[in-house]
């Protein structure tokens, strides 16, 4: 079984991002970048399937700038067999990314695509579902448990009211939630080994997909500021403030 | 042009998030239709028809939609979408599940999790865990939009829309429902509660959450949690508040033993009043809260509960 794992290079989750003062966008040029945390979870799951002998090949793919090679090297250090970078300087909407990934699925014919539920920069939570719809496959979103069945994958999903389990015929797309697994700590020998694994670089244009979309970001702003708070000395003062000042109890 | 809202429900009751989504839809177009797809869901259709501002309810009562699986639900919406300028659903786990399928098949963008509407094609939405608010323009022929429920007030009742039956779409048969495990609770729903008491790693254990329960009893509050508390197994996954969990905006949010990571703050920063109870005065939650009480939660919570009881009597 072949598993494809799309991974995105994003601003590290520990960095607090701020809009540019002129509102024209977000300056990420000098910020720490990492693999999207949900994609690390997807990588981990794919590699576990490989280690369990269920998957025979794990391929990581990223669409992004030349620097996304670092992200793909991380994927290779996790244990991916090879990686593909589709280079573009443009920041593209999920509708376009899903077009490109559908083309990659066409070339690679994986049995399972494992990917993050959400990129923590755009917070879109769209790409997995869009890809599944484009290629006409079933989807198991927000997975916290994944089990391979006979020609199908059984996915337990985190939903608003609890969890829900679905069975998907293969091939299928699964998107990961936080509690699917805990990604491993990458060890130096694996990082060294990753440097020698195949990483194919091609311009995104080589896929021949339309990169236009109807959506664009026109400006950004700080969220409305909250007024500064106060420190209360004890429970009595807290209750008094909540009752008489804030009037919420 | 007419806007289509896809209703969320449990086949018997219309979800509060749909009332809020309808209010966003009314800000977008001149007429609003609501699609109710489910099994034995006539009552939901009637509830939707009674919403203020709704012109038409499209009722699709069919076993295909018994489990609200994304693939068949998306197929149904796609079969109806060409009559509309926009399709809206709440940005819940359900809306997030099927709506991108609709967008992809129409080959249009989706605008996720909108918090504001400036015009028929201009929206506001949070990015980077809400540290940045983006203004986006979507000029696709059909706008596919998910709506952050807390950002819109629910519409009232008093409408009398017509109810029309629509046929089920072909089930693509890509997935099969196996089972579900839903959290039972007598408490108000987390997303809609007036007061939320949330616990973090500092609460220490599932038993520790009993202290939050007894406080929540006094306040008729819902219980929430940080990711750390869920990961540690103190509470179920659907309690998680944050960038990648639930978004809440109650009148009062009490964060107990929660440090205040940006990912958590993202899910509760629009609360009217935030209270932090934390023993670390340097914790971001203590710095950002409206009222911060620095102390040990195991001492503070019983005293707070007793104080509330005393206030009531
Ligand atoms: C991709 C991604 C997505 C995430 N999504 C979310 C999300 O949606 N929601 C979310 O919450 N987090 C999310 N996180 C995790 C987030 O970054 C933090 O790790 C998490 O919120 C920390 O939880 P906490 O505040 O309970 O734990 P900690 O940061 O460990 O804080 C515990 C707090 O309890 C206090 N404390 C301890 N004992 C006591 C006591 N006896 N009395 C009083 N105070 C005490 C401590 O002083 C401390 O401030 C996400 C992270 C990533 C990488
Ligand atoms: N540029 C990209 N390259 C590779 N994978 C991506 C890219 N953008 C999004 N993805 C995948 O899609 C998931 C969801 O992203 P999004 O829909 O943008 O929130 C991510 O977790 C990745 O797995």
Automatic annotation (TrEMBL), chain A:
GO biological process: carboxylic acid catabolic process
Domain Electron transfer flavoprotein alpha/beta-subunit N-terminal: 23-211
A Pfam match: ETF
Entries under PANTHER family matching the protein: ELECTRON TRANSFER FLAVOPROTEIN BETA-SUBUNIT, ELECTRON TRANSFER FLAVOPROTEIN SUBUNIT BETA
Family: Belongs to the ETF beta-subunit/FixA family.
Phylogenetic placement of the source organism: Bacteria, Pseudomonadati, Pseudomonadota, Gammaproteobacteria, Chromatiales
Cofactor(s) of this protein: AMP
Keyword Electron transport: yes
Known partners and oligomeric status: Heterodimer of an alpha and a beta subunit.
Name of this chain's protein: Electron transfer flavoprotein subunit beta
MF-aspect GO terms: electron transfer activity
Keywords, comma-separated and alphabetical: Electron transport, Transport
Organism, as annotated: Ectothiorhodospira haloalkaliphila
Keyword Zinc on entry: no
Function comment: The electron transfer flavoprotein serves as a specific electron acceptor for other dehydrogenases. It transfers the electrons to the main respiratory chain via ETF-ubiquinone oxidoreductase (ETF dehydrogenase).
UniProtKB/TrEMBL annotation, chain B:
Cofactor binding comment, as recorded: Binds 1 FAD per dimer.
UniProt lineage: Bacteria, Pseudomonadati, Pseudomonadota, Gammaproteobacteria, Chromatiales
Superkingdom of source: Bacteria
A GO MF term: flavin adenine dinucleotide binding
InterPro entries in alphabetical order: DHS-like_NAD/FAD-binding_dom (IPR029035), ETF_a/b_N (IPR014730), ETF_a/FixB (IPR001308), ETF_alpha_N (IPR033947), ETF_asu_C (IPR014731), ETF_asu_C_CS (IPR018206), Rossmann-like_a/b/a_fold (IPR014729)
Protein name: Electron transfer flavoprotein subunit alpha
Family under the similarity heading: Belongs to the ETF alpha-subunit/FixB family.
Described function: The electron transfer flavoprotein serves as a specific electron acceptor for other dehydrogenases. It transfers the electrons to the main respiratory chain via ETF-ubiquinone oxidoreductase (ETF dehydrogenase).
Swiss-Prot/TrEMBL keywords: Electron transport, FAD, Flavoprotein, Transport
PROSITE patterns: ETF_ALPHA
Source organism of the structure: Ectothiorhodospira haloalkaliphila
Location of the Electron transfer flavoprotein alpha/beta-subunit N-terminal domain: 3-181
